[in-house]
């Protein structure tokens, strides 16, 4: 049996009004706090020194590796530094799906077009991780970029995949 890693990435819309962005920031803190108690949640990447995360490339996240960002031509000149990315580990696909599509996170998903640019790139990628292993940022970025270029496979898929649904 393997665990499931979830990497998410989104480019913030530079035209978002500050009040809408404040709503996103408020929700984000609440959502991350709710993940800590979610069934099947095994952990998420965070700075190794416990300091405030700047989400700068190379930032040390201990066993989760150095913070990394995808680089896709499809970003069409948008600044990939103005982003939100997460990397988390779940007991199974069902646990991750339940967290994402229920509760506080589900409500936030309904507003994602208020905060993020829409493009041809994926919003997330999932992949199996051996029990006891910790996914690394570089794993997420590699799979995310491959998903954008080549689509799904056994080692990268989305919640919408019919082949890998739990």
Description:
- Helix content is 32%, strand content 17%.
- The protein is an alpha+beta fold and 166 residues long.
- The protein has a domain at 13-78 and 94-126 and 136-150.
- Strands 2-3-1-4 form a 4-stranded antiparallel beta sheet.
- The two termini are 13 Å apart.
Order of strands side by side in the largest beta sheet?
2-3-1-4
User: What share of residues are in beta strands?
Assistant: 15-25%
Work out the helicity level: 25-40%
How many strands, what sense, and barrel or not for the largest sheet?
Answer: 4 strands, antiparallel
Low-confidence stretches: none
Described by the principal axes of the CA atoms, the overall outline is globular
Give the N-terminus to C-terminus distance in angstroms: 13 Å
Protein name: DUF3291 domain-containing protein
Pfam family, one: DUF3291
Domain DUF3291: 5-161
InterPro entries: DUF3291 (IPR021708)
Task: For this entry, give a set of tags.
166 residues, alpha+beta, four-stranded antiparallel beta sheet, 32% helix, globular
Overview in brief:
With 166 residues, the chain is an alpha+beta fold.
Write the layout of secondary structure elements.
Elements: E1 2-11, H1 18-36, E2 41-44, E3 83-90, H2 93-101, H3 103-109, H4 112-115, E4 124-130, H5 137-150
Organism: Microlunatus flavus
InterPro entries: DUF3291 (IPR021708)
Domain DUF3291: 5-161
């Amino acid at each position: 049996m393997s665990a499931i890693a979830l990497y998410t990435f989104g480019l913030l819309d530079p035209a978002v009004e500050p009040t809408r962005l404040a709503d996103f920031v408020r929700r984000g803190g609440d959502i991350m706090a709710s993940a800590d108690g979610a069934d099947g949640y095994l952990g998420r990447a965070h700075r190794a020194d416990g300091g405030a995360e700047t989400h700068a490339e190379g930032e040390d996240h201990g066993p989760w590796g150095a913070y990394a960002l995808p680089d896709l031509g499809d970003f069409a000149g948008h600044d990939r530094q103005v982003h939100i990315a997460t990397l988390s580990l779940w007991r199974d696909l069902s646990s991750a799906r339940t967290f994402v599509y229920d509760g506080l996170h589900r409500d936030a998903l309904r507003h994602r077009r208020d905060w993020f640019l829409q493009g041809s790139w994926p919003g997330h990628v999932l992949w199996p991780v051996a029990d006891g292993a910790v996914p690394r940022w570089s794993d997420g970025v590699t799979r995310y970029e491959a998903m954008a270029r080549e689509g799904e496979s056994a080692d990268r898929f989305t919640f919408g995949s019919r082949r890998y649904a739990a």
